Structure formats: C-alpha cells, structure tokens
Amino acid sequence: MTAAVPDHVRTRLWRDGRLVAENYPLAEVSEHLQDEGALVWVDLHDPTHRELSDVADELDFDPHAVEDVVAHAERTKVTRYATHTFMTIYATSLADESEPADAHGSRLRITRVSVFVVPRGLVTVHRGTGLDVGEVMRRWDDNSDLLRHGTAALLHGLLDVVVDGQFETIQGLDDAIEELEDGLFDERAHIRALQRHTYRVRKELVQLRRVVLPMREVVAAVMRHRAERGNSVELDGWYTDLYDHVIRATEWTESLRDMVTTVFETNLSLQDARLNMVMRKLTGWAAIIAVPTAVTGWYGQNVPYPGFGQWSGVLSSTAIIAGSAGMLYIVFKQRNWL
After folding, report:
1. For this UniProt entry, which segments traverse the membrane (predicted)?
2. Predicted TM-score (pTM) of this structure
3. Is 322 in the same domain as 216?
C-alpha cells in the first residue's frame, strides 16, 4: 500500500476518547490496532479491488465477508466471524421532485454500507454518495465522551445516522401518501397522473421496507452480543434508544404500506363510482333524446292522423316533445342522474 492517503479513504485514531490522528496511511492501521488504548476508524469510499484486498489481508478479514462487500443485492444482515463481526446495512434518502428518477421511476436512493467491526476498530465500505460520512463524524465529535467505551460507540454513531436517514425517508413517503389522499377527492386532479404517483410510491415503499425491517434484527444482534460479552452498561441506554427508533421505523413502514394499499383501493372504488355516474348521465340523456325521436317518428307516418297536414299537428308534436323531455329532465335531475 502507498504512503499517501487517497481522497476516497478516511482514517481516524482516538486514544482514551481523544482524537489524536486523522487521514494517516492505511499501512499504519494494523499497527494502531495493536495498541490497547487506541480506537481506529477506516472508511473506504468506492475502493478499488486492490485496496479492498489489501485492507482485508492486513486485518485478516474472512473471505466470505469480503465477497459480500462486492456482491450485488446483499440483504441487511449481521454475521459474526472468529476475528470480527461483519454487517450489511443500507442508508436511504428520497430525491426531490426536481431530481430525475432512476431507470425504474423510483426516487428512493439506497446506499449499501458494509461494516467490519474489530476489537479496537471499525472499517466501513460504501459506494456512491448516499451515506453522509460528515454527519457520522459530527455525531462522534458531539459525543466524544462515549468513544472511551471503544468500538461500540463508533458503531452506535454509524447506526444512529443510518436509522435517522431511514426516518427522514419514511417521513417523505408519508408526505407523498398524504398528497395522494388529498388528490383522491379533487375533481380537478388528473386521474392518470394520480395512478402513476400511487404506483411509484408503492414501489418505493416496497424497496424501503426490504432494508428497514431487517434493521431490527441487526440492532438486536448487536445488543445480544454486548450482553453476552458483559460490556460496560454505559452504552446500554444509547442502544436501547436506537432500538426503539428502529422499532418505530418498522411500525411506521408497516402503517404506510396499509395506507398506500387503502389509497390504491379507494382510487379504484372512486373510479367505479365515477363510471357509474357517467353511465347514469348517458342513460338519462339517451332517454330524453328518445322522446323527440319517438314523437317525430309517430308524426312522420305516411298515413293520416289527427292534425295531419295542418299547423295543429306541428304544434301538438312540439308540445309533446318539450313536455315529455322537460319532465324526464326534472325527474333525472332530482335523482342526481344529470
């Protein structure tokens, strides 16, 4: 590995909860990890295969965990190995309406974050710009007194930022569903656009649910591992609060799924109701139009009838048409068919 630190690599070193070094070469990571009073963080943003392999070899990461980093469509999970713990989590965000959607028409942005937890350090690997690394570092700096408790404090800060981002994404989808509900009963709303937005929100919610729901098991596994090892209880309250946030996010996601299903079904019901209204109006006007057709057809016979060839016949037929059509119009209007 080279001595210089590339721009996409970040490193930090704490001792006894105090930041003592930053952006040092990757070659020094294993040396710092040998120091019992040290706490190390390494962040690899869009690393090359060579960089990832070098870090994995130096820190003795399990090959299966390294494969999970580069594999596609890995699920949210946590796995314990002999020398480290590996987890896959996803940072989420919702693009603005002004930003272009992806190839599938979704505004949801999902960034996979692979995390290696070693006894005195944390290694994060992620691609794209979905993870706000600056916010993660600010959380650590704001709660620097917690860093004396070791890797668990670093992991908590990272998970807290990811869960908060998922909360913001869920809030954005909640607002989108409320807009859909308002548009359901708006007579000026474009039906096709409303249906398209409903399907888009439904697709985004399905994608979000796949990464939010497993977070409950990830945080629970971390808490169980801490309990089994008898770690200090100072962080228990922080992890309990984090777990509560994960539960709330899970329940909120489930409620949104019920809401978007209700919106979808209500939209179909309203479409049926509008179709019935249109059919009633067409039936009413067809009945009114049938009156003059029947009357003129009667008076159009080529046989003598009362008023045949006289003005009285024209006047009587006109009166019958106007009276019958007017009576039908009044009856249909009272029944709200027109």
Report:
1. none
2. 0.77
3. no
